[in-house]
């Protein structure tokens, strides 16, 4: 069902206009519409601004953090466990430690919405973020010519963080698609003091990598690229470590930033992966088969990875390219 026309508040347009003409390293996609460019400029500029302000907030306001008394809404043990499960399924909270997770779970408030109800309206002010417990919700964005469908949110995913991260009006609308949706709502203050810092740090950590990874050129939505950093992690390997064993099913897609990884079949070295952005583990995650090769670290190195659970919300969009690449990369050796 098409939602009614979404209101674009004047503040939102003022803010977007103010953010024009700023250099934008992330906008490598030349097909982007002006709106997309403006949007990414806005997001990027805000991320840069946050570099200072987040650390200022984190450290300058240390006392505030020390004295911060998080909202606490009593819940059954079962509810708390369910929230934790949902938080683990997504990546918004992946950088939190156990204590921080407890605080966030305590502050969450259950909200029930019904079919076709707006949870978020583009252009409005936003003070909370949501984690989906049950149900499905559609996200639409009005770039000026009516609503464009962007994606469906499923249990475990979260949305509504941009307004909190960048103190901007809501950048899209979210409407309930299923008969009912149960959401967990997190307030701005707990988000700012507990989640925001970790989330921004994570986005900065992988920003350069994501800007330069060729594979992502097909992902049109700048927001999706920015969000991908939440799903990226790093693992350290020593020279000679088997990163992935032939015959196994991988639980991650590994991505090379630097270093050398040999590709071996039946203990025979076939070739080496040495290029920035080379990846493996895709046979398991993308094609659903076992790995035909072993991958061995040829030097002490860090390897990035995207866990299997994040595949559908990150790389699935370019699955046909990934499938083609499997043929190109491994076809002659299988
Ligand atoms: P927020 O701007 O607070 O409210 C709308 C939410 O929609 C936004 O945060 C994001 O969580 C989500 N969203 C999903 N896709 C996009 C997109 N392409 N651009 C902006 N927001 C998006």
From TrEMBL:
<dbReference type="Pfam" id="PF00027">
    <property type="entry name" value="cNMP_binding"/>
</dbReference>
<keyword id="KW-0677">Repeat</keyword>
<dbReference type="InterPro" id="IPR050503">
    <property type="entry name" value="cAMP-dep_PK_reg_su-like"/>
</dbReference>
<dbReference type="GO" id="GO:0005829">
    <property type="term" value="C:cytosol"/>
</dbReference>
<keyword id="KW-0547">Nucleotide-binding</keyword>
<dbReference type="GO" id="GO:0030552">
    <property type="term" value="F:cAMP binding"/>
</dbReference>
<dbReference type="InterPro" id="IPR012198">
    <property type="entry name" value="cAMP_dep_PK_reg_su"/>
</dbReference>
<feature type="domain" description="Cyclic nucleotide-binding">
    <location>
        <begin position="216"/>
        <end position="315"/>
    </location>
</feature>
<dbReference type="GO" id="GO:0033554">
    <property type="term" value="P:cellular response to stress"/>
</dbReference>
<feature type="domain" description="Cyclic nucleotide-binding">
    <location>
        <begin position="92"/>
        <end position="212"/>
    </location>
</feature>
<dbReference type="GO" id="GO:0005952">
    <property type="term" value="C:cAMP-dependent protein kinase complex"/>
</dbReference>
<dbReference type="InterPro" id="IPR000595">
    <property type="entry name" value="cNMP-bd_dom"/>
</dbReference>
<dbReference type="InterPro" id="IPR018488">
    <property type="entry name" value="cNMP-bd_CS"/>
</dbReference>
<dbReference type="GO" id="GO:0034236">
    <property type="term" value="F:protein kinase A catalytic subunit binding"/>
</dbReference>
<keyword id="KW-0597">Phosphoprotein</keyword>
<protein>
    <recommendedName>
        <fullName>cAMP-dependent protein kinase regulatory subunit</fullName>
    </recommendedName>
</protein>
<dbReference type="GO" id="GO:0004862">
    <property type="term" value="F:cAMP-dependent protein kinase inhibitor activity"/>
</dbReference>
């Amino acid at each position: 069902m098409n939602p009614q026309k979404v209101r674009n508040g004047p503040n939102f347009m003022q803010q977007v206009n103010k953010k024009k003409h700023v250099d934008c390293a992330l906008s490598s996609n030349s097909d982007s519409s002006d709106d997309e460019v403006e949007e990414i400029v806005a997001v990027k500029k805000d991320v840069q601004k946050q570099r200072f302000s987040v650390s200022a907030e984190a450290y300058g306001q240390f006392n505030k953090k020390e004295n911060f008394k998080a909202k606490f809404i009593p819940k059954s043990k079962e509810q708390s466990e369910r929230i934790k499960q949902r938080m683990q399924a997504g990546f918004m909270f992946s950088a939190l430690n156990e204590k921080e997770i407890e605080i966030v779970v305590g502050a969450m408030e259950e909200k029930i919405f019904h079919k076709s109800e707006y949870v978020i309206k583009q252009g409005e002010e936003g003070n909370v973020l949501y984690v989906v417990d049950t149900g499905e919700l559609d996200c639409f964005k009005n770039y000026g010519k009516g609503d464009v469908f962007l994606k469906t949110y499923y249990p475990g995913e979260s949305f509504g963080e941009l307004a909190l991260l960048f103190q901007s009006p809501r950048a899209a609308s979210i409407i309930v698609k299923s008969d009912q949706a149960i959401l967990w709502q997190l307030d701005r203050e707990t988000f700012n003091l507990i989640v925001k810092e970790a989330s921004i740090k994570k986005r900065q950590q992988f920003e350069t990598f994501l800007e330069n990874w060729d594979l992502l050129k097909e992902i049109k939505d700048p927001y999706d690229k920015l969000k991908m950093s939440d799903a990226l992690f790093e693992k350290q390997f020593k020279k000679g470590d088997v990163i992935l064993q032939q015959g196994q099913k991988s639980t991650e897609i590994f991505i090379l930033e630097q270093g050398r990884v040999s590709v071996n079949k039946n203990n025979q070295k076939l070739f080496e992966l040495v290029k920035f952005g080379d990846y493996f583990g895709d046979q398991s995650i993308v094609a659903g088969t076992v790995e035909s090769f072993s991958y061995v670290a040829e030097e002490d190195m860090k390897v990035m990875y995207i866990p299997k659970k994040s595949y559908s919300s990150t790389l699935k969009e370019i699955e046909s390219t990934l499938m083609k690449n499997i043929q190109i990369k491994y076809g002659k050796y299988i």
